[in-house]
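Hello K.,

You asked for the raw outputs rather than the summary table, so here they are, unedited. I folded two proteins back to back in the same session to keep the settings identical. This is the first:
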Amino acid sequence: MTYDGIETCLLVYLFLRLPITERLSVPTQVEHVNGNLHRVSPTTCFSDLPPGSTLQVDFEAELFIVSRTDVLPNWYVVEAGCALALIVSSTAGYNRAFVRPFTKPVQWKTGATDTYNPLSPEDRYTCISVGASAVKEPGHFEVG
C-alpha cells in the first residue's frame, strides 16, 4: 500500500482472547502472533490510505465473548520495520466504545445448553432492590 506517496505496510496489533474467524470488511489478513496477540495487515488488494483518513475494519471472533471486557483496549499500529508504535485512537482507554453492542444470543451463548441471558438494566435494578434470589429468569421475578 502507498501512504503519502511512500510504499509501506501498516500493521495493527490487538489482544483478543479468542481467534478471529471472519473479516467482514476491508481486504486484510489476520495472523495469530502469540498467546492473545493478533496482527492485522493489508492484503495486496488493499487500496491506498490517504493521509488523515480513517479506516474501519470489522471482524468476528470464534466461539463466544462473555462480556465487552473480553475485548482488550489499546490496539496499536506500527509500520513494518519501524520500532515506533502508536495507539489506535478509537481503541484508547478502557471504555470499549469500539466494541459493538451484543445483539444476538450467538454472541454470548457458550453452547446449545447455555440458558443464560444478560440482565437488562431493569433486571439488575430488581436484583439489587429485592435480591438476586428473586430473579427466576430475565424479566420474571418472585417477590414475597
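The second followed immediately with the same parameters:
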Amino acid sequence: MERTNPTTAATGEVEISQAPRTLALNAGEVVDIGSTRVRFLVRSPETAGAFSLIEYPILPRTLVAPVHRHTWEDEYSFVLAGRAAALLGDEVVYAEAGELIFKPRRQWHTIWNPGDEPSRILETSPQEASSASSMNSLPRSNR
C-alpha cells in the first residue's frame, strides 16, 4: 500500500484523509510538551476534528500534565507498555499494559507513570495534546 501524506506540500495545511495509508514505525510529528515528547499518529484536522491519536512515552515516576479538565471532549488512554495512573476527580485509578483509562469531559484529571520502568500510552482526544484551548486552568485550591 502506498503511503499517502495528509499534508499538502504547497500550503502545509493538513487535509482530511480519504485514502488508505500507513504510518511508519517512527513516523509522525513529534512535539515536546514539557514532561515528554509526544508523537502524533493522527492529527485532529485529518479527521475533521473527530479525534487525534497521540503516543505518549512516559519516563518512570513522571507526571504528564498538571491537573486539568476538558470542557467538550472525553479522553481515552490505552496503556501500551508499563503502567499508568490517573487522578479522576478525587479517585486514583491504575492501568497495566492492555488496559484503558477513560477520562470523561468536565472531570478534573491528570495522568502519570507510577512505576519504575518507562511506560507508553496511546491517547485519543478531539484536541491536540499541546492545545490549551480545551484545557481550563487549575482550580484555585490546586494553584
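The longest strand covers residues 52-58.

Happy to rerun anything if the numbers look odd on your end.

Regards,
P.
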